[in-house]
Amino acid sequence: QPIASRLETLEGATIGFLDNAKTNADRFLEDVADVFESEYGVAETIHRGKANTAVPADSIASYLASNCDAVVNAYGDCGSCTSWCVYDSVDLEKQGVPTATVNSDEFVRLGQSESRSLGMPGLPLVTVPHPMGDIERGEVRSRAENAVPELVRVLTTPRDELESEYEGKYLEADEELADEELYCPI
C-alpha cells in the first residue's frame, strides 16, 4: 500500500504529535513542535499520548487522523515499541495522514522490516541516535532540533519520491533481519 500524499508546506498546518509513552518521547515531540511553530509556520499542534508503548494507538490515531494535517510519531528504540510505533504510523498513513515515524538508529532496520510486513515498505523512518530514554534534557532538545529537517522533508516531499527513497533505505529488498537485531543491546 502506498503512503499518504504529503503536504506542500507546513505553514498554516495542524500537526499531531503521537507520544508512544517511551521515556523522553514527550520532551522530544514538544521540542520538535516548538521548532515547527517558530520556524515553519505550523498553526496548531495537537499532542496525544499512549498509556503504554506495546498497544495500538487506535482511538488516539483516529482522533489525530480526523484533526491533523500530518503527524509525527515517536519513537521506536527497542523491539516491541518499534513494532507498535510502526504499526501506528501505518494505521495513520492508511487513514490518509502523512506521518513521520521516529526510530533510533539501532532499531530502524527492525522498523523497516515491520513496515514491509504490514504492507507499506516505503514508510519513511527518521532516525535519531540510540538510546533515547536515558539521556539528559539538553541532549533530547539537540536530537529533536537535528531531526527537524528530515521530519519536515518526510512530511512535505512528494509521495512517489519519498517511497522510492525509503523502500530500501535500511534493508535491501530481499534482506531479512538476523535474530540479534531484534533485541536491545543495552
Question: Strands, helices and their partners?
Answer:
Blueprint: E1 14-19, H1 25-40, E2 44-49, H2 59-67, E3 70-76, H3 79-94, E4 99-104, H4 108-117, E5 125-128, H5 137-156, H6 159-166
Helix pairs in contact: 1-5, 3-4
Short description:
By secondary structure, the chain is an alpha/beta fold. The chain has 6 helices and 5 strands, in the order βαβαβαβαβαα. It has a 5-stranded parallel sheet, with helices on both faces.
User: Which ranges are low-confidence, i.e. pLDDT below 50, for 5 or more consecutive residues?
Assistant: none
Individual helix count: 6
In one word, what is the shape? globular
Tell me the major beta sheet.
5 strands, parallel
Provide structural commentary:
This protein has 186 residues and is α/β, with parallel strands linked by helices. The chain contains 6 helices and 5 strands; from the N terminus they run E-H-E-H-E-H-E-H-E-H-H. Strand 3 (70-76), helix 3 and strand 4 form a beta-alpha-beta unit. The chain has a 5-stranded parallel β-sheet with strand order 2-1-3-4-5, sandwiched between helices. Helices cover 42% and strands 16% of the residues.
